[in-house]
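#structure-requests
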Amino acid sequence: MAQASVIEAIRSTLDEELAADERMFILGEDVEAGGVFRATDGLAAKYPGRIIDSPLAESSIIGLSIGAAHYGMRPVAEIQFADFIHSGFDQLCSEASRWCYRTKGDAYLPMVVRTPWGGGVHGGQHHSQSIEAYYTHMPGLKVIAPAFPADYRSLLKAAIADPNPVLFLEHKRTYRMVRQELEGAPAESVIGRARVTRRGGDLAIFAYGLMLHESLAAAESLAGEGIECTVVDLLTLLPLDRETILEAAKATGKVLIVHEDTLTGGLGGEIAALIAEHAFEYLDAPIRRVAAPDIPAMPYHHAMESFFMPDAAKIAAAARELAAY
């Protein structure tokens, strides 16, 4: 079977789910024409009336999805860039995330919000944000950030089937950069479960999205120096897979957490706190983080963007220091 890119895995999954359930529909800006990244290319002709262009109004995209889900539909909303989602913050966080809780479990809200996130494509400050930390603060949401096509496929299927709202983050740099055969790929991924993608006894690296690929590249380089790393793909950011995280931390005694978001307030702080609280006695060194600097937004110029973003070289340098501790 030919290898599939991330965007091909997403498109084929949406196609299969639309065919399987007439309640499902897709809405968002320019989705009828295929969307900016072509995730919905060809679907409007195949499913008339179920691929719906929306106004440039993210609050209405998410608000309409809430209403439709409440009345038995299965909406999959596309926010054109993650940077634009914040105008729908109130709908997603004040309404959707609390729907099941406020009804004491009597009502569910089966809706998915897909959005491309992250940098590395010279998108500048309005098309490159990492938004995950805002939304992993909202119990009631599930937040997913895969790295490989097979995980995009199985986790998107799981998100569409989930009875409660899911924010599905698609790193735009990986859309056409990463390819994988979908048949024979690792075991089907499950919401809330991380995966150990590489094993080593010297330290554990935790990452997700594009940074998972950078971490694997760093680990491969370090292996040539005699430093063996466990690399954990978090996959789901809310809820975190506490068991897998703690097992890896305890097994290696040294922890490096990598994310593209800025350092202060990033998800790495929560993971570090989890390990410090429940695995402190196993640690042989301070927990380290590799993240973007605390700059308000990602620069446009390629040299400044490279300075801003973590990469394999920066991860490897931090891992060497940690391994020598």
